[in-house]
Description:
alpha/beta, 14 strands, globular, binds S-adenosylmethionine, 2 domains, 8-stranded mixed sheet, 14 helices, Ribosomal Protein L9, domain 1, Rossmann fold
Amino acid sequence: MDYRAYYRKAPQMSFQDYCDAIAAAQGIDPQATARTRDAEGTIPGEAREKLFNIAAEIKNTFHEFGAPLPPLLEGCTVLDLCCGSGRDTYLAAQLTGAAGKMIGVEPNVERLAIAKKYLAKEIKQFGYGEGNVEFVQGAPENPPFLADGSIDVVISNCTFNLSPDKAAYIAKVRRVLKDGGEWYFTDVFTDRRIPQETSDDIARVAERLGGALYINDFRRLAQAAGFADPRHLFTWKTPLTEAEQAHYPGIAFATITSRLMATDMTEDVCESYGETVTYKGTLPDYPDYFLFDKDIKFPTGKACAVCGNVSGTVGYGSRYAAAFEMTGDRSQHIGDTHGDHIIACAPDFEGVVDEDDRPIQASCC
Length: 365
Ligand SMILES: C[S@@+](CC[C@H](N)C(=O)[O-])C[C@H]1O[C@@H](n2cnc3c(N)ncnc32)[C@H](O)[C@@H]1O
């Protein structure tokens, strides 16, 4: 199966028309297509109270779920890809602080207009200067105004699954990120590929289901774009109506928050280099542990032996490095963390003979 072609739609319309058709199908009423409403724990504690500083119209036209906001945004340049009417942009802006910068990109002019309408009022309230928050109209697959390697963190909230060219979208995210930068996002994934005609149907895509990615294809696309080791932090079952369930028989959907680091210090499998990391307990909301992914927590103050994908994520130029002490480096390679089976278990040549029944003393290479 050419999964790349499957995720590259060729709509019979311009890209802008496609984006507008998605927005029109979703309508201005967020309840119509939002998959899940905010629930306890889906917005980080440090951001939750900052919701009160955001205009009601922005919150009422917010279309998605939770808030994909990683820790340590202070001073960062953050891009909110497909920001809609800007709720997450304004939330994140309060975390980047006056030393940081927030850029919201959105293809749909009506939604962007709502975000822009409150710009002067919001930045005054946050105590920021004009340049701290910016909204730009553009397609996520090709925002030409963003220089490569210019962004510390990309966030996106249920927009990737709308894209008609997911490989281009993810490649763009990888290119705009600085070395050590992070893509932290929430989106809807599936446990198998959705039938092609459904995934090509704009109305189904606008409902956030038709364009949902098969989770293994997401990993393939991510790795092809240079994100070697995508990690998933939070997962929630995506609620479906009975009619939707009938339309997607046997397909399971989940809303997942993922972290992808833009670094050459991670690899496609976990390799050991004899490194350890000790979490200092300094992140807001995480005094007791660092949540690396949904299966792995690093307790505060405990030196943990880790693979290169962990040290590559939290060290070596990552903004998380300040929250960790590390030992070791990459000078010594100890092999696959999960153990090598083919080589370690290979039998020696004893008892192996050639076609003339002579014992084999050596292999050909
Ligand atoms: C589900 S809404 C989420 C908006 C915003 N992140 C929020 O949380 O309210 C998806 C956004 O993606 C935009 N969009 C439209 N076409 C798109 C495309 N081709 N690729 C990605 N996003 C697209 C829509 O205009 C819409 O604002």
